[in-house]
Amino acid sequence: MHAVIVSVTINDREAARENLRNDIVPRVKQAPGFVAGYWVGIEGDKGRGTIVFESEEAARAVAEQVQANPGEAVTIDSIDVGEVVESA
Fold it and tell me: What is the 3-state secondary structure (H, E, C) of the chain?
């Protein structure tokens, strides 16, 4: 398994939540190889998403989509793809 870890700065909290709920989560859930996703609001204006896929290829494909279309409600600070070495 591989995970996409996205860190963002939230520019508009309500718009970001609406976009996450109505667009991003449904689209990611339909992506090939999707296993699980978690999106976390960090103190202040920061947020992070961790999305797990069955393969590195599937994870990289979604990472590219996220990078290409972040929307206006958030600014992407970083996107990383890595192997899941353990889970619980």
Answer: CEEEEEEEEECCHHHHHHHHHHHHHHHHHCCCCEEEEEEEEECCCEEEEEEEECCHHHHHHHHHHHHHCCCCCEEEEEEEEEECCCCC
